[in-house]
Structure prediction request, 149 residues.
Amino acid sequence: MQIRELSAEQCLELLKRSTLGHLGCVLDRQPYVVPIHFSLDAERNCLYGFSSVGQKIAWMRENPHVCVEVPEITDRNHWTTVLIFGRYEEIDDTPEHADARQRMLDLLQERREWWLPATAKLGSQERAAVLIYQIHIDRMTGRSAARDR
Ligand SMILES: Cc1cc2nc3c(=O)[nH]c(=O)nc-3n(C[C@H](O)[C@H](O)[C@H](O)COP(=O)(O)OP(=O)(O)OC[C@H]3O[C@@H](n4cnc5c(N)ncnc54)[C@H](O)[C@@H]3O)c2cc1C
Prediction:
């Protein structure tokens, strides 16, 4: 198997066609990883996400440094993954976040229902309190594996 590094453009291509990743955050030296949906905004160099208010939000409010892993796995010999190292920030109703908010809403129109898992409450059909956030991309790396011919 050969593993190669991806260029920044190749990383962005994968992020554009993906919607599912794993978000890792840390509090008091304890890591916590959950699956999330996201949408890339390449112009603003960030990911947008929709979230229920629970442990991950509480932890990221305390420590905004996060890592997101985005996989594209065909089989154990053929895969591509991108890792993002970034910073969590909530998008609220303030003028400062008006641009991010509008861009996030535009992306939501394009990808209807991808955010629904965030609104489901444990063990019920009730909708939980949700918020939207962005992850500013500080740096990213990508690797791709393919089997030797
Ligand atoms: C394919 C997929 C996409 C998803 N997309 C989103 C999304 O875009 N936004 C979003 O907010 N959520 C999404 N979820 C749900 C998400 O993974 C979390 O389960 C949910 O957000 C609750 O996280 P929390 O930190 O608020 O946990 P809380 O509700 O506060 O739960 C606390 C405890 O529950 C346990 N727990 C929480 N989530 C999980 C889990 N998934 N599996 C096992 N144990 C768990 C942990 O032990 C944690 O300590 C998605 C899940 C899947 C499978």
Notes: The mean pLDDT is 90.
